[in-house]
């Protein structure tokens, strides 16, 4: 008979990047809900996230870091580990998007998106694994529907999110034997700040909902609850898995 706690026990301390708003905030709240500790990382205020996690019964500490700053990213895990103690999990959520026709996308915008969405994900995972080797740990990467599709006017974002799946798979291959699970979530259309303009377009929003079998936009907690599963013992035999949380968009 399975242990019911296998679906809720995710370790004592989990670091979440980009936890100040949106999906990252939803992940932080879901993780913290049963009283666990969340290390919320980002470059802007975490006041709202702290309030929501604490209201849900969790504990949260904030750690300021600009994840586009390569040198700061390289030392982030070590600094957090030293200050707060061992991390039982890492959620690589932070990401940005730049809209432009592919023929017009600037090199600066390409580099900015790739550095944050892809390079920082790898560098943080690498630093975490060095400390978690043979100790056991969990890494959850946040992909996208555009990890599978091409999209329009989002070349750097699409490339980065395809790359997130590749990183998830190679790291799972190399680290599963060391006790580290590396998996990913591919969110669908979620209600948060990055989709505000899209949701404000009544025709486009209606067309999106019409294609989603669940007939609604997702909310950040939908992603957060999936992250809790991937951080919990219930998913211990999952390595390199990518879970779409999209209301059925990809199967339509």
Quick recap:
The chain is of the alpha/beta class.
Strand residue content: 15-25%
Query: How many domains?
Result: 1
Helix/strand order, N-terminal first: EHEHEHEHEHEHHHE
Strand order of the largest sheet: 3-2-1-4-5-6-7
Number of H/I helices: 8
Number of strands: 7
Q: Give the CATH topology.
A: Rossmann fold
Major pleated sheet: 7 strands, parallel
- Within CATH, the superfamily carries the name NAD(P)-binding Rossmann-like Domain
Features:
252 residues; alpha/beta; Rossmann fold; 7-stranded parallel beta sheet; 8 helices; 7 strands; 43% helix; 15% strand
Explain the overall architecture.
With 252 residues, the chain is α/β, with parallel strands linked by helices. The protein has a single domain, classed as NAD(P)-binding Rossmann-like Domain (Rossmann fold). It has helices at 22-32, 47-55, 70-84, 107-132, 155-175, 196-200, 202-211, 220-231, and strands at 13-17, 37-42, 59-64, 89-92, 137-142, 180-187, 242-245. It has a seven-stranded parallel beta sheet, with helices on both faces. β4 (89-92), α4 and β5 form a beta-alpha-beta unit. α3 (70-84) packs parallel to α4 (107-132) and α4 packs parallel to α5 (155-175). The longest helix has 26 residues, at 107-132. The model has no long low-confidence stretch (mean pLDDT 94).
């Amino acid at each position: 008979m399975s242990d019911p706690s296998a679906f809720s026990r995710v370790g004592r301390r989990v670091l979440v990047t980009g936890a100040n708003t949106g999906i990252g905030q939803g992940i932080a709240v879901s993780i913290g809900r049963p009283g666990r500790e969340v290390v919320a990382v980002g470059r802007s205020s975490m006041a709202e996230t702290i309030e929501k996690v604490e209201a849900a019964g969790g504990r949260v500490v904030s750690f300021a870091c600009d994840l586009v700053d390569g040198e700061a990213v390289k030392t982030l895990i070590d600094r957090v580990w030293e200050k707060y103690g061992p991390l039982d999990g890492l959620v690589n959520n932070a990401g940005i998007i730049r809209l432009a026709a592919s023929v017009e996308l600037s090199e600066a915008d390409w580099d900015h998106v790739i550095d944050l969405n892809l390079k920082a994900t790898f560098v943080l995972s690498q630093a975490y694994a060095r400390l978690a080797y043979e100790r056991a740990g969990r890494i959850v990467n946040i992909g996208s529907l555009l990890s599978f599709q091409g999209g329009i006017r989002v070349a750097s974002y699409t490339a980065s999110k395809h790359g997130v799946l590749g990183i998830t798979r190679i790291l799972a291959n190399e680290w599963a034997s060391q006790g580290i699970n590396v998996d990913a979530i591919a969110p669908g259309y979620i209600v948060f700040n990055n989709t505000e303009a899209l949701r404000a377009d009544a025709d486009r929003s209606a067309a999106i909902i019409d294609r989603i079998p669940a007939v609604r936009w997702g909310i950040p907690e939908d992603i957060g609850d999936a992250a809790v599963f991937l951080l919990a013992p219930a998913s211990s035999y999952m390595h390199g898995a990518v879970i779409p949380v999209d209301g059925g968009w990809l199967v339509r």
